[in-house]
């Protein structure tokens, strides 16, 4: 297991201490659990090759509103 140093604001550190005492676990264990939960909920952004990527998120919606004039069939 690796060791690291975190900078935590005083009020948050106090809440961490209280929660660790209440649950009878170490503060490190609570931090590891919190990181695991946060990373489990993380969904990476899909990678795109750039094919058809316009950079706009509402392209389909605006395309539905802006219909082109129909061309004559003859």
Summary of the model, kept short:
The protein is an all-alpha fold.
Question: Layout of SSEs?
Answer:
Blueprint: H1 10-23, H2 27-41, H3 59-65
Which short descriptors sum up this protein?
3 helices; mainly alpha
List low-pLDDT spans.
Answer: none
List the quaternary state of the chains. Answer: single chain
Strand content: under 5%
**Through-space gap between termini:** 74 Å
Shape: rod-shaped
Average pLDDT across residues? 83
Biggest sheet: strands, sense, closure?
Answer: none
The domain tally reads 1
**Radius of gyration of CA atoms, rounded to a whole number:** 25 Å
Determine the number of helices (DSSP H or I, runs of at least 4 residues). Answer: 3
Class by alpha and beta content = mainly alpha
The total of beta strands comes to 0
**Share of helix among residues?**
40-55%
Order of helices and strands: HHH
């Amino acid at each position: 297991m690796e060791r690291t140093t975190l900078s935590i604001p005083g009020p948050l550190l106090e809440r961490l201490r209280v929660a660790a005492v209440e649950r009878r676990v170490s503060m490190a264990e609570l931090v590891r659990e919190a990181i695991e939960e946060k990373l489990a909920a993380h969904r990476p952004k899909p990678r795109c090759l750039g094919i058809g990527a316009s950079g706009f998120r509402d392209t389909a919606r605006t395309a539905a509103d802006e219909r082109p004039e129909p061309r004559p069939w003859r």
